[in-house]
Design goal:
The protein is an alpha+beta fold. The protein has seven helices and seven strands. The strands form two sheets. Strands 2-3-1-4 form a four-stranded antiparallel sheet. A three-stranded antiparallel sheet has the order 5-6-7, covered by helices on one side. A hairpin with a 2-residue loop joins β5 (258-263) and β6. The radius of gyration is 38 Å and the shape is elongated. Residues 275-282 have low confidence and may be disordered.
């Protein structure tokens, strides 16, 4: 017998029905008035029938109680398992936060050390520390952004059309599930005949890294042949990148049989269809 609230209600109604029949048979109004004297008024056959019926109901109730106890044990075990999963998830989140804090502290320490080294011989001042921290904050903010270049800009482009276009581009990178976008906007002054780049902000730097590593998949779609993705660089970083691009174009002209790409501020060279073998420093 499987326990359920419906079965419990049915059993309760059956018990009440039989009790009412017994009270009526011995001519009393409630169970407290059922005495040995009252029961002696019944003939043997109806008394035997009442006893048999109540015995059957008691057995059913015992079986139902056992099922209810088993059900409670199962629910208790499931609840304990759920709580353990929640604890594991929370512990994982705590560990993640701890690692993030360690990483951020290391980043801050590295930047301060770098800025201090650049000042060689100069005293470390409050302003230099503030500037180092601003640099860290700037890098952290930019790490959650990426840029889209070469996507056509219509004369009367509206926000919802731009948002939909960006989401389509992200989906075409084959990132599953697609990350949630926090902000999407064109950058720079609008000029006739030019497509302004699009800056996209995601929830995390890891989402940005994943999108950029799969950006090559856009070449599989004719609509995005001339569209490419890149990190959100500072002006200085952009100038350095443009220098690398110019250098890479010269290398391609000299040896077009190789595959060239830029990663981590370096030009990598590989046989077409194979992984990188050598690299040129920026």
């Amino acid at each position: 017998m499987d326990f359920s609230v419906d079965r419990l209600n049915v059993m309760e109604n059956e018990m009440k029905s039989e009790i009412q029949k017994l009270l009526k048979a011995v001519n009393v109004s409630c169970g407290s008035e059922v005495t040995e004297t009252a029961l002696n008024k019944l003939h043997k056959p109806p008394l035997v029938k009442f006893v048999s019926t109540f015995l059957n109901l008691v057995e059913k109730n015992v079986e139902l109680c056992k099922c209810a106890a088993g059900k409670m044990d199962i629910l208790k075990s499931e609840k304990i398992a759920d709580q353990k999963r929640i604890i594991d998830i929370q512990q994982g989140q705590i560990n993640s936060v701890q690692e993030t804090v360690k990483s951020e502290m290391k980043s801050w320490a590295d930047v301060v050390q770098k800025n201090t080294a650049q000042r060689s011989g100069k005293h470390l001042t409050e302003n230099s520390v503030k500037q180092a921290l601003r640099t860290v904050d700037e890098e952290k903010r930019r790490s959650k952004n990426f840029m889209i270049y070469g996507y056509p800009e219509s004369e009367k482009e509206v926000n919802f059309e731009l948002n939909r276009s960006v989401k389509n581009i992200i989906e075409c990178t084959d990132m599953i599930p697609a990350p949630r976008t926090c902000d999407i906007q064109r950058i720079g002054r609008k000029e006739l005949g030019k497509n302004r780049p699009i800056k996209v902000q995601l929830e995390s730097a890891s989402d940005v890294d994943y999108v950029l590593t799969r950006a090559r998949n856009l070449k599989n779609f004719t609509d995005y042949i001339n569209v490419y993705l890149g990190p959100d660089r500072t002006r200085e970083e952009q100038l350095a990148h443009n220098k690398l691009v110019k250098q890479m174009k010269q290398m391609i002209e000299k040896n077009p049989n190789k595959h060239y790409y830029i990663r981590n501020r370096k030009i990598y060279i590989a046989d077409k269809g194979l992984s990188a073998q050598t690299s040129q420093s920026s």
